[in-house]
Write a structure and sequence with these properties.
heterotrimer, A mainly alpha, B mainly alpha, C mainly alpha, B: mainly alpha, two-stranded antiparallel sheet, 19 helices, 2 strands, C: mainly alpha
């Protein structure tokens, strides 16, 4: 018995949607950041699922690249968040709106 | 026992990328190992040399492709063609100019010079990778190399709260759009069975993509990723804030490099991998182009900050570049190549001048700071005026030729309404540019504005780079033939 | 000589550039002499090229010689090169442009004496001449447009030369804005022609288009010409442009730049002649402008404004001639008009100079005794413009009216009546200025200073007057109606080829028409004498409607500027609000309003920026869904 491809895709899309929704509604920068990671992992899930169904190793190798990219993003993102936290002692996205217009 | 089959790699073709990437890594290692901090002059010189190395190898690649025709390397993941060579030339020029423009600034602001240069070189290599990518995954990696370095660059001015805010906004939204882009890759992969651009177009040509829904969803997601990177309306909202907050030389670099990489990749994906879907993507690009042209021009008019104004100006330029994509002909692509090169030079130099004026803490680029500049420093004022007029598209500057060839291409394609909208938006934008030029030549209140930047105006390397850009802008504005031919030949050797 | 054509442009350009480079060292009067010499050399080169052209029979049926300087723009099908084309039409223009420019440069040395920005004035003047010559010699529309913009910019600088004065600054802006509006016409014409003919080179145009497209192209050209040449509906900037120094009014706003529109229409004769509808519209605009401006000129009290409206009216005649297809008549009047109108302006400048800047005719009178040279030369200019035989204007206007009669007697009647008005208002202007009693010797009611002894101008100002008076007397010799082998008609007709329509009237008819012209001139002169002898003010003859330019500015204000409040303003006395200011403000307000709304989206919140991205994504996906589904 095998789970059909469409289930994986629907799950991936759901995860992706949850992540996107989280970015839009959460105020804490770190949580927003985690939501972005969730979106990346949703994409990873889709890639692996497609790779399995296509019987092609390409999708699975891509996932490894994405993991590296995500790690790099974490490094940079946390660096920026820490710098901001030092100055403002808060990590609330809405407070970061000095510029606009 | 199975041996791992390594793909053949043409290092000559990768030379521009390798120069920048390895040059950046080497500089990082050197500065880490060195006991004393490296002298700023040494680092700038190094960076310029690396840029020249990339430029020469890109020109060599261009020459090679002209003779041998387009090909691909690294298991057909990287395209070796005139288009990528032309973009590599553009990016190399951007690197050279950006290094010169940042020199004095980094010293004044006491920013660690190697850090800036390592990031700029890395980021530039990402832009070339995007342009040369013949595989969506490679494209994604190029995009991330470009972007991650830019996030850090935006945060480089540690004294400014705006710089941090800009970096965070850019980072969160950039990651957001990257994720969307990656999801698009996954869907495209699922629908066509490959991430290689040639395979995708072959599959689409055979009509075997049995999942139109998946395919179109993938296309839509990919487009959003691109539109974010090139700052097209309504995906542009981050642009003005990031441009305003980032250190000014970084803004210039960002405006040039990110736009070049983004547009190069967008052109390649839409026109070589997915021409069969043009009935689907043309209306989207068309509508986004209209929104971008109008949004950029209209919002430009009301800005009181030079950097924000130039941000909206870059959005308006992005609209023009999208117009070239709507044309979707080789004339359109070569027009876009010309536009990208000339815009990069002009925009970099413009931000270079703004750098000189943005105050000792680089946190105030209000338009009134430019008031009477031409009276105090006629040479810099005149250069600024010329650069602004070039952005406005005044004849005898590259800006005119660029706008003209894009519009000509789209009219040749038959989209006359779009051409009219583009021209109308240019007219609105001209108003904003001219107002700024008028500000430069104002006589009153010269004495009242205390600019506190007089030492920054005697920044030799920056002045040299600005002068060079002005000469390029005017020279190719009067004699555009050579550069236009360069672009046309590059497009003739585009990997199909 | 043909490889030296570029020198015609190079000399004034070099003059201007070298003056810019040395502006800190060169002072009065050296700058003036340098500039004059530059334009003088250009005139001599033109003469040389002209003589070569006369002597050679090369250059094909239209006698055109092209000097290719370099490739300029090659984009797609567009090949616009730096080509200078000399043919009888352009050389005629060049001759009078450089000739009159030289005289006016010379005149300016005296007139601008003591001005603070003496050198700057001559820089602008030289750059103007260079741009005008690019306009004239350009072998394709794009090059002409370059010159067209160049003269526009120089005109703007020169009109607002006294920019410390608000009126001068706003007059400059007004001229600039009107000209930009007209540029739309030029650009439109270029686009229409390029996409139908695939060329912008004059010698390659064929007018193979559908009649609708053709008419569109002609109307766009006419609109462009209307801006530059101050025709209805864009004529109203020219009187305001009189804020510039008088030599500028003479050179740019009477003799040369304002005829550029007419020149453009002549240059494009292939296209213009192929559209009968377009030709009728051109006739209509020309006659309407001639008539309206003439009526306005009858009621002006400022001598330069009067002359300005007269210029508008005379250019109306030229446009009318273009509409009939008799381009030679248009060019003839253009040349003759350049002579006498430059003379009249320079004469008025001499008067103004003598009266310490007074321009109101109410403060003149009796200047005959004080300014004998100015009076003597102005006399001939006056007789020439009103069309008294045998002066230049008689022949030139006569050939236009003959051509108009061939087109339609009704148009001709309108033209003849306008000629009567011309004779009347010019005579009024002449009497008010030079005859009667001197009204400037006592202090004026509004505190104007008295001038005890007006002094005649220096020789640098008198010499141009004398030369131009000579030309106004004998200018008719350029194209006598019964001489066919010699003169403008024989010289120019190869250029126009089959486009040219020349009336083939019998001798009797020609004499009758000429007699009517002469009669009208004398009649107008007499009426003015009867009405204005010894009088300086007759309010019943200068109604506000005419003095205020048919409320034209207000009209624009109504339809473009502020529709809501304009009805009330229209009835009230409104003091010259700047028309297109309103339009510009309106557009700006629209853009500003849109921008204000759009700005709210840019609220600085990361999360709402993300909403923008998701919104865009959803719109794209839904649009795909609609297409697939």
């Amino acid at each position: 018995m095998s789970i059909p491809l469409s289930w994986f895709i629907i799950l991936a899309t759901l995860l992706f949607g949850i992540g996107a929704f989280g970015v839009l509604v959460r105020r804490n920068v770190l949580v927003m950041f985690m939501c972005v990671e969730l979106m990346l992992n949703a994409a990873n899930l889709a890639l692996v699922a497609f790779a399995r169904s296509l019987n092609d190793v390409g999708g699975e190798t891509t996932v490894f690249f994405v993991l590296v990219v995500a790690a790099a993003e974490v490094v940079v993102g946390l660096g920026i968040v820490v710098a901001i936290f030092r100055r403002r002692h808060s990590a609330v996205a809405d407070e970061l709106s000095e510029m606009g217009g | 026992m199975n041996h791992l089959a390594l793909p053949t790699v043409s290092y000559a073709a990768l030379a521009p990328i390798l120069f920048l990437l390895l040059g950046g890594v080497a500089l990082m290692v050197l500065s880490a190992l060195s006991r004393r901090p490296l002298a700023a002059g040494t680092v700038t010189g190094y960076s310029v040399l690396i840029g020249f190395g990339a430029l020469i190898s890109a020109l060599a690649e261009y020459g090679h492709v002209n003779g041998a025709g387009p090909s691909s390397t690294v298991a057909s993941a990287i395209a070796v063609d005139g288009f990528s060579a032309a973009i590599a030339v553009t990016v190399s020029v951007v690197v050279i100019l950006a290094s010169l423009l940042s020199h004095g600034y980094l010293r004044r602001m006491q920013i660690d010079a190697p850090a800036y240069h390592v990031l700029a070189l890395t980021s530039a290599s990402g832009a070339i990778i995007m342009a040369a990518a013949n595989d969506l995954v490679v494209l994604f990696l190029g995009l991330e190399i470009l972007s991650i370095a830019l996030y850090v660059l935006a945060a480089l001015n540690r004294r400014s709260a705006k710089s941090e805010e800009a970096a965070l906004k850019y980072f969160i939204l950039g990651g957001f759009s990257s994720a969307i882009f990656l999801f698009g890759i996954a869907f495209t992969y699922g629908a066509t069975g490959s991430t290689n651009l040639q395979v995708i177009t072959r599959t689409l040509g055979e009509g075997v993509a049995a999942k139109p829904g998946l395919l179109l969803a993938g296309l839509g997601l990919l487009l959003v990723g691109f539109f974010f990177k090139v700052a097209a309306v309504p995906f542009h909202l981050w642009t003005p804030d990031v441009y305003e907050g980032a250190p000014t030389p970084v803004t210039g670099f960002m405006a040039a490099a990110a736009k070049v990489g983004g547009f190069a990749a967008l052109l390649r994906v839409l026109l070589t991998a997915m021409p069969q879907l043009s009935t689907n993507w043309t209306p989207v690009v068309y509508s986004v182009a209209v929104a971008t042209l109008i949004g950029g021009a209209v919002l430009m008019v009301v800005q009181r900050d030079a950097k924000r104004m130039l941000a909206y100006s870059s959005i308006n330029h992005a609209g023009f570049l999208l117009v070239g994509i709507v044309a979707a002909t080789s004339a359109g692509i070569s027009a876009d190549l010309f536009y990208l090169f000339t815009y990069s030079v002009t925009a970099l130099a413009t931000f270079g001048i703004v750098t000189m004026l943005a105050g000792p803490r680089d946190d105030d680029a209000g338009i009134d700071r430019l008031s009477g500049l031409a009276r105090r420093h006629p040479a810099i004022g005149a250069a600024m005026a010329i650069l602004l007029l070039a952005q406005a598209g005044v004849p005898f500057t590259t800006g005119f030729i660029a706008k003209f060839s894009v519009i000509e291409a789209v009219v040749g394609h038959g989209s006359i309404p779009l051409a009219i909208i583009a021209m109308a938006s240019a007219a609105v934008a001209v108003f904003a540019y001219l107002r700024l030029v008028a500000t430069l030549y104002r006589t009153e209140d010269i004495a009242t504005v205390d600019l506190g930047y007089d030492d920054s105006l005697t920044d030799g390397p920056a002045a040299f780079a600005i002068g060079l850009s002005v000469v390029v802008t005017i020279f190719f504005g009067i004699f555009p033939a050579a550069l236009l031919d360069f672009g046309r030949t590059a497009v003739a050797h585009l990997l199909p | 000589m043909n490889h030296l054509i570029f020198l015609i442009i190079a000399f004034p350009l070099l003059g201007g550039v070298s003056l810019i480079a040395m502006s800190r060292r060169v002072r009065e009067p050296l700058a003036g002499w340098v500039a004059t010499a530059a334009v003088g050399l250009s005139f001599l080169t033109t003469l040389g090229v002209f003589i070569t052209l006369l002597g050679s029979h090369s250059g094909g049926p239209s006698h055109a010689v092209t000097q290719h300087l370099f490739d300029w723009i090659n984009v797609g099908a567009l090949h616009a090169n730096m080509d200078l084309t000399v043919d009888p039409l352009s050389i005629t223009m060049c001759l009078f442009v450089t000739g009159i420019s030289t005289l006016i440069h010379l005149y300016s040395i005296g007139y601008m004496h003591g001005e603070k920005d003496f050198t700057k004035f001559f820089i602008y003047l030289n750059l103007f001449v260079a741009s005008m010559l690019i306009l004239v010699l350009g072998g394709n529309m794009l090059l002409t447009f370059t010159g067209w913009e160049g003269v526009g910019v120089c005109s703007y600088w020169l009109v607002s030369y006294y920019f410390q004065k608000d009126s001068a600054a706003s007059a400059g802006k007004k001229a600039f804005i009107y000209n930009r509006v007209a540029d739309v016409g030029f650009l439109l014409a270029m686009f229409v022609i390029f996409f139908n003919e695939h060329t912008l080179t004059y010698s390659k145009m064929t007018a193979h288009m559908s009649s609708l497209t053709l008419t569109m192209a002609v109307l766009a050209l006419l609109f462009a010409a209307a801006g530059k040449s101050a025709q209805i509906p864009l004529f109203n900037w020219l009187p305001d442009a009189m804020e510039g120094p008088t030599p500028v009014s003479a050179l740019i706003h009477a003799a040369t730049m304002v005829t550029a529109g007419v020149y453009l229409l002549c240059r494009m004769h292939v296209v213009v002649s192929a559209s009968p509808t377009g030709q009728w519209v051109i006739c209509g605009i020309g006659l309407a402008t001639a008539f309206v401006a003439a009526t306005i000129a009858t009621s002006q009290s400022d001598i330069k404004k009067g002359l300005a409206f007269s210029t508008v009216s005379q250019i109306g005649y030229m446009v009318l001639a273009v509409g009939t297809g008799d381009y030679v008549a248009a060019m003839f009047l253009m040349v003759a008009h350049a002579f006498f109108k430059a003379l009249l302006f320079l004469g008025s400048g001499s008067v103004i100079h003598a009266l310490d800047g007074e321009q109101e005719m109410g403060r003149m009178g009796g200047l005959r005794k004080y300014l004998p040279w100015t009076y003597g030369t102005f006399l001939f200019g006056w007789l020439a413009i009103i069309g008294v035989p045998p002066f230049a204007g008689f022949w030139a206007k006569g050939s236009v009216l003959d051509a108009v009669f061939g087109k339609s007697p009704w148009l001709w009647a309108g033209g003849l009546f306008t000629a009567l008005l011309t004779a009347y208002y010019m005579s009024r202007l002449f009497y008010l200025t030079f005859t009667g009693s001197a009204r400037f010797t006592e202090q004026g009611p509004n505190g104007e200073a008295a001038v005890a002894h007006p002094h005649e101008s220096p020789w640098t100002m008198r010499l141009p007057l004398v030369i131009l008076a000579f030309c106004s007397i004998f200018g008719g010799l350029l194209n006598l109606p019964w001489v066919h082998g010699f003169g403008l008609e024989a010289f120019l007709s190869p250029v126009f080829g089959s486009s040219l329509v020349v009336p083939a009237d019998s001798m009797t008819k020609q004499f009758l028409l000429a007699g009517a012209d002469a009669l009208v001139a004398v009649l107008g002169l007499t009426i003015a004498w009867v009405l204005w002898r010894g009088r300086s003010e007759r309010p019943e003859l200068t109604p506000a409607f005419l003095a205020k330019v048919w409320y034209w500015d207000n009209f624009y204000d109504t339809i473009i500027g502020r529709p809501a409040t304009a009805l009330a303003n229209f009835t009230a006395e409104v003091v010259d609000p700047l028309v297109l200011d309103g339009a510009v403000d309106g557009t700006a307000a629209a853009v500003g309003g849109l921008a204000t709304r759009l700005r709210k989206v840019h609220n600085g919140q990361i999360r709402s920026y993300g909403v923008g991205i998701i919104f865009g994504l959803l719109v794209i996906l839904v649009s795909f869904l609609v297409v697939v589904g």
